[in-house]
Every structure is written in C-alpha cells, then in structure tokens.
Amino acid sequence: MDTYAIGDLSVHRIGFGAMQLPGRGVMGPPRDRAEELAVLRRAIELGVDHIDTAQYYGPDVSNELIRAALHPYPDTLVLVTKVGSLRDAEGAWLPAQRPAQLREAVEDNLRSLGVERLGAVNLRLMDHPAADPAQRVPLEDQLGELAALRAEGKLAGIGISTASSAQVEAADDLVGIACVQNAFSLLDRSDADVLELCHQRGIAYVPYFPLGSAFPHTPKVTEDETVRAVATRHGVTPAQVGLAWLLGHRENILLIPGTSRVVHLEENLRAADVALTAADLAELAATQA
Ligand SMILES: NC(=O)c1ccc[n+]([C@@H]2O[C@H](COP(=O)([O-])OP(=O)(O)OC[C@H]3O[C@@H](n4cnc5c(N)ncnc54)[C@H](OP(=O)(O)O)[C@@H]3O)[C@@H](O)[C@H]2O)c1
What we know:
Blueprint: E1 3-6, E2 9-12, E3 16-17, H1 33-45, E4 50-52, H2 61-70, E5 78-83, E6 85-87, E7 93-95, H3 99-113, E8 118-124, H4 139-151, E9 155-161, H5 165-175, E10 179-181, H6 192-201, E11 204-205, H7 225-234, H8 238-249, H9 262-269, H10 278-285
Parallel strand pairs: 3-4, 4-5, 5-8, 8-9, 9-10, 10-11
Antiparallel strand pairs: 1-2, 6-7
NADP nicotinamide-adenine-dinucleotide phosphate (NAP) is lined by residues 17-20, 52, 82, 122, 124, 161-162, 181, 208-214, 222, 237, 239, 256-261, 264, 267-268.
C-alpha cells in the first residue's frame, strides 16, 4: 500500500478511526468489547500503522481499548489524537480550548494510551463560536501551547481539525502543520479548497466522515445509487468504491474509516485494490449530496 507522511512520520494510506469503538453516540462501553479488541488487533495484522483517536471518545473508552488491545505498540504505529473538546454526561460536545485544557488533554491521552509521545495532536476547533467567552481563545494561543508541548517532546506533529483554509494557512505559517482533519467524502466535497491548500503545501489531509459517518443526519456513501452501481460492476462493496475514490483523488489523502466490525475493517483495507476506471470516475463525479 502507498504511503504519505504526517509531518516526519510515513504511514500507509489506509489507517483506522477509533470513533466507532465506544457505545452508541460515541458514549459508554462498546457494544461488544471482544469484537472491538479484535478490530484493533486485526488492523495491525493487516498493516495499519495509523490510528486516529480522542480521549473524549467514550469518553475514555477508545483509548482504553487501544491500549488493552495493542500495548506494547509496534514501533511503526503512529497514534494521532485530538484535543479541544469535552463531553458532558449527556454526550454533548463542549469546547475545551483554553491552553491549560489543551495541555491537560494531551497529558490525559499520553497517560491513557501509555506512550511518552503522540504521533500528532489535532487542535479540534469548534464548529460554532463558543457561548462562553473564556472558550474564545485566539488561534495563536492554542497553537502556542501545542508548540510548547511539541518542544517538550510530548507530540511529534501538530494538526488542525474543522478548519477553514484561512485557519490552516495561518496555523501552518505559525507552527508548521503536519495534518488536517476535516469532513470530506465522495458525497461531500465542500472542503475541496482546504484539500487543495494541503496538497500544495505537502500536508496530510485526513478526511473524517469518509463514508458519511454513523450519525443519522449525514448522507451515506454506501447508500448512494451511483456508488452502488459502480460497486456491482467491479464486484466490490460500495464502501470500497467510496474509499478507493478518495485514495485516487489526491495523493495526500490518508484514510481513517471508522468501524466497530472486523468484517468492515477487512473490507475497508481492501479498498486499495479497487482500480476505478475513467468511466467510473466520470459517473462518480456527479455524486454530490
Ligand atoms: N476531527 C474530527 O472532528 C472528527 C470527527 C469525526 C470523526 N473523526 C475521525 O474520523 C474517523 C472516521 O469518521 P467516522 O467513523 O465518524 O465515520 P465514517 O468512517 O465515515 O463512517 C463510519 C460508519 O460507517 C460504517 N462502516 C464502516 N465501514 C463500513 C463498510 N465497509 N460497510 C458499511 N458500513 C461501514 C460504520 O459502521 P460499522 O461500525 O457497523 O462498521 C459507521 O456507521 C472516526 O472514526 C474518527 O477517528 C474525526
């Protein structure tokens, strides 16, 4: 499988996103703990060397499972996390963007994953301006804290998530950005400008929701009629077509599809074998939700 680098760390183009491991709504214990541990172990067996996680998945569930399944980790495994948010008891996603909170979140991830250094840490910006003025922290102050943690050796690369092109450009100029995590898929290409910026600057672009997520409100790549028709023609699954399209779209795209099932994990990793033709791509060009 091809590779691309997150900062100085080269990883395979298909990794794994750990957000589907906890219970429903990314809250609480997993649906089937044995299955989730098996997903993680199988991922490594099949060559996954890039896992995306967050302390707030569960909260505390995804990281605990990763450690239970995989520690001591292979030397080649790049663990990437994100900071900037917290969950309340009902599962709401709250901002936690003050520098002290970012530092605490990095320390929590180091402790729960059982590592001394994280491969990269994404600063997860909030989708909407925070109601609490204390949470409206200038970008340079947030990035400054992550740069200090990088200088202390606690993380190798700084990433940014849910960021506009102006924010990515500013962040890259300020501290050097290793990866960007924004929503992007065959059905949602609204972030094409940020992808292009990353491509020009040699920054890894790691789309979240590559299949349309598990949340009910987003269109699912696997349910799209055109995707399904192309999949049938190739004798592969719709998920594989959606992921193969992303792999072919730009070389700086790194995939982290999320799944709670071994069978889906194995399927997703085989997306690299799907060769879409010019006719397929022309047909898929029209699929935008
Ligand atoms: N930076 C951020 O703010 C942010 C936000 C969201 C997510 N993320 C990261 O991005 C990763 C990917 O996003 P995501 O997990 O939310 O969404 P996703 O990868 O687009 O989709 C996950 C959904 O697709 C299903 N699925 C996976 N493989 C499948 C297959 N082969 N066939 C049919 N269905 C399949 C999963 O169900 P099953 O469990 O049944 O397979 C789940 O419902 C996350 O895991 C997380 O690490 C980051």
